Amino acid sequence: MASLNRFLDAVLFRKEPDRVPVFITGTFLVPYIYKLTPYEAMYDYEKVIKVHLNFLEDFDPDYAISPGSINFGKILELIGFKQYKWPGHGVPPSSVYQYVENIYMEAEEYQWLINNPSDFWLRAYLPRTCKIFEPFKTLSPFTDLWEIILYPSFFVPFGSEVFQETLMQISRAGREALLWTQKMREFSQQAKAMGYPLLTGGVTKAPFDIIADTLRGTKEALLDMYRRPELLKRALEVLTPLAISQGVRGANLSNSPIVFIPLHKGCDEFMSDAQFRTFYWPSFKNLIEGLVEEGCIPYIFAEGSFEKRLEYFRELPEKSCFIRFEKTNMEID
């Protein structure tokens, strides 16, 4: 609790902490320090947990870096994940994983996303990004099940050989995910017993970045600001409460109010100030305010330069969040 109180004292300006809180981040930082390859870090639970515990003993940070942030290769293999290349699957064992940007939502599918984001995710987005979900594109919308006569025909696809194998593969992935969860829980308990709590409780994303990173790709999302601005803005409105909910659920589940939010396409390099003010800031501000209203503390990582955006952060609730800047001169009047 001492380190948590130290952090809250500093971030919320409750009082001057006994010293500056030290929070070290970096997905593969710990494996690199202890000469573990990215491949080993993603495939060997015992090794990656051991080096993270060694890190706590050797460096005495205020908070534990969880090996859970690395992700684990076997689960990605089982689901046939297509959005990343990872060690041994597209990149060498010595390399960290790399994102594969693509168009995972077509322009004409904006309205589908707006009308029913869950249906779009289940029957369009996931079949494109995970091999395990490819058969789901053959399903009818679950909202078709509004009367007894519709149930038999709805379940026909589940009886196919392809779907039967899919369900078995989902079960395999689920068992591996349970093992991963057990290992991460054990690490968390050991770290806490050593006096090092995990800092981040939940994670979410700026609505514009969900569009630009995950669905449309950078180029298409930026072009959408010109070609279909109203559809883009409506989609951002729809995604905002979903992003708030995800952050809050993670914080509640982990019993930590800190919600991590990386910022990508809102930096100075990707859009003008006018575009930021119109397309990025409104939904992002609503996201932060929504999290704060639910008792969360947003932890914002501003990737890229945000020197031209600093004034916007004044609009956020006072003493509500903390921001880490990658390469921003933080001089502000």
TrEMBL record:
Domain of life: Bacteria
GO biological process: porphyrin-containing compound biosynthetic process
Residues annotated as domain Uroporphyrinogen decarboxylase (URO-D): 200-316
InterPro entries: UROD/MetE-like_sf (IPR038071), Uroporphyrinogen_deCOase (IPR000257)
Molecular function terms from GO: uroporphyrinogen decarboxylase activity
A Pfam family annotated for this UniProt entry: URO-D
Protein name: Uroporphyrinogen decarboxylase
Native species: candidate division WOR-3 bacterium
